From TrEMBL:
This is Anti-sigma factor antagonist. InterPro entries: Anti-sigma_ant (IPR003658), STAS_dom (IPR002645), STAS_dom_sf (IPR036513). Belongs to the anti-sigma-factor antagonist family. PANTHER family: ANTI-SIGMA FACTOR ANTAGONIST TM_1081-RELATED, ANTI-SIGMA FACTOR ANTAGONIST TM_1081-RELATED-RELATED. NCBIfam families: ant_ant_sig (TIGR00377). It comes from the Bacteria. The lineage of its organism: Bacteria, Bacillati, Actinomycetota, Actinomycetes, Kitasatosporales. Residues 17-118 form the STAS domain.
Amino acid sequence: MPIAQNPLSVEVTLPREDVALFKVEGYLDVDTATEFQHHLANQLHHGRRHFLLDLSAVPFMDSSGMNIILRVYQEVRELPGSVHIISPTPAVQRILDLTGVSITVPVSRSAEEALGRVDGQPAAVPEQEDV
């Protein structure tokens, strides 16, 4: 009886009504990408516009995983919405950097930082500039 070498685990929580936080564990590759896509599509169907993808427990991601992230990024931008990657492992960060995905999809160190970006904090400018 063969056992899946690297099963994917996806835990979804809702920090807010329009935000879904995905805690992804395991390899995000051609064998598991469809399962991940189903989780994303389900939350999109339920009206979530902002997707926080915690990849801190993903030791490996191939082009299948990247394509799903880019696809959901394109879909939610039209809503408008956003996708944020949280704490990718060094191997995943390297792939994101080499392919330019990290330029398109923001990378945060924590869920709190990503939520701040959803709220527009990185682009926020102090209202009172006259000192």
